[in-house]
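Field log, afternoon session.

UNIT: design team B
ACTIVITY: writing a sequence onto a fixed backbone
BACKBONE:
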């Protein structure tokens, strides 16, 4: 018997397929018709695509929070432009996150996030004393012609407060340490910081009569005033070897002197300029003892008839006066006085402190 070739049988002779099967000569859903090339999906316009599901962006648009292609992120400069001085990008999704616009790390410019000199600002960095906030210092005044650097502060004040710091080791043991002082204005802002420079042997063997060098710095850490006191006698029995303090402002340049004048009963001093010419006189009480009241040393004219200022040793309380030598002083001078002479009057305050009120080591 001759067998028929099934492959030559026309499709119309086949019975209809069951449910779920496509009709004969028709492709299945999603398949191209035989002999017809499949359409290019990339050429299909975006409008013909179905809407994406919830949470997905519309085709051709960036996801929420991301910038449109070709445009810079919000808060960032346009590509190819120079960021302005001190520019920092705003915090947010574009600061150092993967896929965000902008340079690695999320910031333009040099390390530190700002353009400019090291430290983020022009001028020398503020070198405050440890533990003292910057707001506690007196703002730096503008430069004044022919004024020694650092003495501009004195041009704005007519009164200074000198507070000696309490040294616990000295208070409990009587072991003399280097004195330290805060110099403030009437608002309580620190103007200068003074520190004694001395060795242990000199401090504890010579006591209050010891020689010393006192360094005074401003709020930028600059050494603006230097006080030098040689070892001398302060007794009225030796008028040829009385106290003398040299004031340098700036260090190395003499601004003036404080010289003790001989008197059998009263403490007297002269304020001298750099040429050792007398400018003012200082006269204290016969017994410079701080007992429940202030002790005043008057700053007067050369003839002693008019008072122009004052150095006051302030009473600080019975306990502090008895067990420590941490003294408080008030220094007053004319507002229009030359800043060099103001520095010399300030130096007289330290000399008076050492001569009459530096007594803790002796009591112990």
């Amino acid at each position: 018997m001759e067998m028929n070739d099934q492959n030559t049988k026309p499709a119309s002779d086949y019975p209809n397929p069951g449910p779920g099967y496509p009709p004969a000569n028709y492709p299945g859903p999603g398949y191209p018709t035989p002999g017809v090339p499949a359409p290019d999906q990339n050429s299909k316009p975006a409008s013909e695509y179905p809407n994406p599901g919830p949470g997905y962006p519309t085709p051709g648009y960036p996801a929420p929070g991301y910038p449109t292609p070709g445009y810079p992120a919000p808060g960032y400069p346009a590509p190819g432009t120079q960021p302005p001085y001190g520019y920092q990008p705003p915090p947010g999704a574009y600061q150092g996150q993967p896929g965000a616009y902008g340079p690695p790390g999320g910031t333009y410019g040099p390390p530190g996030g700002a353009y400019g000199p090291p430290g983020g600002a022009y001028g020398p960095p503020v070198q405050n004393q440890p533990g003292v906030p910057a707001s506690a210092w007196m703002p730096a005044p503008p430069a004044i012609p022919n004024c020694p650097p650092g003495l501009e502060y004195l041009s704005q004040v007519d009164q200074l407060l000198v507070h000696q710091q309490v040294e616990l080791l000295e208070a409990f043991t009587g072991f003399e340490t280097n004195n330290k002082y805060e110099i403030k204005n009437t608002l309580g802002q620190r103007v200068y910081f003074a520190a004694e420079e001395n060795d242990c042997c000199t401090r504890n063997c010579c006591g209050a009569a010891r020689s010393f060098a006192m360094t005074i710095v401003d709020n930028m850490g600059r050494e603006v005033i230097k006080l030098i006191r040689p070892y001398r006698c302060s007794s009225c029995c030796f008028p040829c070897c009385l106290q003398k303090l040299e004031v340098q402002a700036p260090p190395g340049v003499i601004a003036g002197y404080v010289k003790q004048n001989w008197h059998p009963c009263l403490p007297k001093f002269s304020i001298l300029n750099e040429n050792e010419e007398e400018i003012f006189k200082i006269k204290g009480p016969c017994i410079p003892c701080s007992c429940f009241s202030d002790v005043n040393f008057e700053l007067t004219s050369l003839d002693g008839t008019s008072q122009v200022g004052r150095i006051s040793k302030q009473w600080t309380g019975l306990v502090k006066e008895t067990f420590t030598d941490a003294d408080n002083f008030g220094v007053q001078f004319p507002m229009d006085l030359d800043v060099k002479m103001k520095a010399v009057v300030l130096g007289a305050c330290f000399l008076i402190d050492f001569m009459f009120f530096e007594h803790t080591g002796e009591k112990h």
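LOG NOTE: The helical segments are 168-173, 200-206, 318-323, 339-356, 360-363.
NEXT ACTIVITY: expression trials, pending approval
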